[in-house]
Design goal:
Layout: H1 2-8, H2 15-39, H3 48-63, E1 66-69, E2 75-80, E3 83-90, E4 93-98, E5 101-107, E6 110-117, E7 121-127, E8 132-138
Antiparallel strand pairs: 1-2, 2-3, 3-4, 4-5, 6-7, 7-8
Length: 140
């Protein structure tokens, strides 16, 4: 009987109760941008091109049969079933070409592309105003 009485009663939501609930919701929504900004990771200085370069060169190395450098030591070559894939630096960019034809620019603003050829092949890439400084080692 008490439920029936509440449904059939004429007591409703007053204007003050409605305004108070709207004010509470507006107050909570007002703080949402600050909460989102507090928990958001700032990746304005993160270089996604470098990640794509790393994924590409690691995948090429994993699928290759052998690795060698050019005689001048400025080009890194991978022998694959589909042909020879080479990486080299040209005008502060790292470019990739397949069988010496065409090229794909993988990374911009590169300061150094150093290849050392000893027991293993070591590639050091430095660029993007000091943000990037990585060394890769490839077994022959």
């Amino acid at each position: 009987m008490t439920i029936k009485r509440c449904v059939l009663s004429n007591d409703g939501l007053t204007l003050i109760e409605t305004l108070l609930s709207l004010f509470t919701i507006a107050f909570m929504l007002g703080f949402m941008p600050m909460i989102i900004k507090f928990f958001n990771v700032d990746d304005a200085f993160y270089n996604y091109d470098f990640d794509m370069f790393v994924f590409d060169i690691v995948e090429t190395y994993n699928n290759s049969q052998s690795v060698y450098t050019s005689q001048s030591g400025t080009m890194l070559n991978f022998v694959m079933d589909s042909g020879n894939v080479s990486y080299r630096m040209n005008n502060s960019r790292i470019i990739k070409s397949v069988d010496g034809m065409g090229f794909i620019t993988l990374l911009y603003e590169v300061e150094r592309f150093e290849i050392s050829n000893s027991e293993d092949i070591t590639l050091r890439v430095k660029g993007d105003n000091g943000i990037i400084d990585e060394t890769f080692t490839f077994r022959k």
